[in-house]
Amino acid sequence: MSDSATHRTIDAVWRIESARLIAGLARLVRDVGLAEDLAQDALVAALTQWPTDGIPRNPGAWLMTAAKHRALDQLRRDKLLEHKHEQLARDLETDASAPDIHEQIDDYVGDDLLRLVFIACHPVLSVEAQVALTLRLLGGLTTDEIARAFLVPEATVAQRIVRAKRTLAAACVPFELPHRSAFSGRVAAVLRVIYLVFNEGYAATAGNHWTRPALCDDALRLGRILAELVPQEAEVHGLVALMEIQASRLKARVGPAGTPVLLLDQDRGRWDYLLIGRGLAALERAERLGGALEPYALQAAIAACHARARTAADTDWNRIVALYDALAQLAPSPVVELNRAVAVGMAFGPAAGLEIVQTLLAEPSLRAYHLLPAVQGDLLARLGRADGARVAFRHAASLTRNEQERTLLLARAAESAGADG
Amino acid sequence: MQFLMLLKSAETSEAPPQALMHALGTLMGEMHQSGALLSTGGLTPNAAGVTIRVADGHLSRTDGPFTESKEVIGGFAMIEVASKEEAVELASRFMAAHRDHWPGWSGESEVRQVYGDAEPVAEAEGTATNTHAQP
After folding, report:
1. A136 or B125: whose pLDDT is higher?
2. DSSP assignment of A10-60, as one string?
3. What's the rounded Cα separation, in Å, for the pair B36 and B41?
């Protein structure tokens, strides 16, 4: 195997193993930052040794053993010989010589991973730091990959991660599961981070691409992992359902030249029915666990209405309006209201939709939100009010930071101008 | 990125060893827990299969068994991973389990990527080459 092929294999092994590796190490050294450093050191060792020695039979176990040896060295070097550390060093020594370390790690790995998830999304961290740390520790992404995904300089991400680890250490955040009373709230924070990552991939807020599917895949993967770790949490399945169904449309969402294709114009033959099936199953699971009225499950139910419709004309808009009504009651927000306006516009005509949009025009939090004038433009165009539509679409185009979306909005403005004459 | 993994081998009436089934169960469990496994299944013997063929403008149907085929597809898995190497690594683990738990068995796993929604490799201006998303 050539060196570059070996390196690609190591990257792949890292992606598969790193989260479990870091989680297992964090349990041993009780410090996520140190655990990650040790795992990184093991990765560096693999990068030096595997190209010459060949890829080991069990790469995951190899990395774990290498990391544990480093943990031992580190503890000895630092002469941290308080009783606790002595004990820890002894544990490590016995562990490291055991033949089936990998199996031992596997015994605890579920809980360890879950602890790691909660630490990465700990409330002492800013949301940006939570996102970076989650992708890094659980997604196995490099700092560079995270930076590219969010179109920020690598140094910014690196610093976010360093600072996050420092914050966790300073706050003495223990490597443990949240207390039962705080559990659901902490799960909600994790879901927020995962959905934020997904959305950035699904409708990139900036840049030259309309979607970044790799980011959606990362979020979905994290969601699926979490659903396995806390299967009793209904809302996790609600979010997974939402992401599976939305991701099923990724291929159909982008036209040949990279231009956006909106839901009702999509070629439904290009939807991924495997993902839709998984999404519907996850939604059913959320509903069975009593989570039908949770915000993610409601949004998934709306997405499911579209997924079940064979053609755009078959869409059950009345049901979608009812679901948005429920969402607006349970998790009211101007963005939900705007989506409700779209659904109402489809179910009861553009005038009814526009009525809701008009109540939102004064909403301060939507002042810079390009989708508000975009929806307004669409409803006005359907009412035959071409002048108003053109102004709205132009306004929307001026607000978006996504190039492909800007092009689409300007094209719609031009169409409205055409309709005028 | 989605990949289809096909497991092919000479058809045998011999039942796979328990140890292999156990190892595969663990492996599949891990792939499920890590979010990589989308769907998987084993296929019934090719004797029960049917082939519909088009040749010279005609459709023809042939019922199994297909004695001419040396290797048959025994099972499949659809997985979603971040790179081809990751798919290859998972398929290798699957095959390593066969090597370790079914002495004398031979066969292959074919790994094929599903055409997907991968992003363009590079921008015209060369601003954002997203290696993370490359096929």
Report:
1. A136
2. HHHHHHHHHHHHHHHHHHHHS-HHHHHHHHHHHHHHHHHHHHHH---SSHH
3. 15
B-chain residues near A15 (CB < 8 A): 81-83, 86
- Does the reported pTM lie above 0.95? no
A360-381: pLDDT as tens digits: 999 998 999 999 999 999 999 9
Contact present, B119 and B133 (Cβ < 8 Å): yes
- Tokens describing residue A144: 């560079």
Place of tokens 């290009």: A270
- Alpha helices of A203-233 — where are they, by DSSP H? 213-229
Q: Does B78 contact A274 at a Cβ distance shorter than 8 Å?
A: yes
* Whole-angstrom distance, CA of residue A213 vs CA of residue B133: 8
Token digits of residue A409? 């909005």
CA A373 – CA A379 distance, rounded (Å): 10
Q: How far apart are CA A279 and CA A247, in angstroms?
A: 9
Would you call A149 and B81 a contact, using CB atoms and an 8 Å cutoff? no
Query: What is the edge-to-edge ordering of all strands in the sheet holding B107-113?
Result: B37-42, B72-80, B2-9, B107-113
Asked if B39 reaches chain A (Cβ–Cβ under 8 Å), the answer is yes
Distance in angstroms (rounded) separating the CA atoms of residues A18 and A14 = 5
- Assess B122–A contact: CB distance below 8 Å, yes or no: no
Question: What's the whole-number mean pLDDT along residues B10-32?
Answer: 91
Q: Two tokens at A413?
A: 């403005």
pLDDT of B128 over the 70 cut = no
Cis preceding linkage at A231, omega within 30: no
3 state DSSP class of A372: helix
Looking at beta carbons, which residues of chain B come within 8 Å of A141?
Answer: 132
**What residues in B contact A13, CB-CB < 8 Å?**
89
Instruction: State yes or no: ipTM above 0.85.
Output: no
Q: What are the phi and psi torsion angles at B114 (to 5°)? A: -85, 135
What pLDDT is attached to residue A210?
Answer: 76
Reported as a single tens digit per residue, the pLDDT across A246-286 is 999 999 988 888 888 889 999 999 999 999 999 999 999 99
Predicted local confidence at residue A104, as pLDDT: 46
**Strand B72-80 vs strand B2-9: parallel, antiparallel, or unpaired?**
antiparallel
* Host H or E run for residue A279: helix A273-288
Q: In the predicted model, what is the mean pLDDT of chain A?
A: 89
Query: Rg (Cα) of chain B, in Å, rounded?
Result: 19
Token code pair at residue A396: 């929307």
pLDDT of A203 higher than 90 = no
Report the C-alpha gap between A216 and A246 in whole angstroms.
9
Q: Which residue of B has its CA nearest to A254?
A: B117
Residues from chain B that touch A275, judged by Cβ atoms under 8 A, are 38
Beta bridge partners of A99: none
Return the number of other C-beta atoms located less than 10 Å from residue A153's C-beta: 9
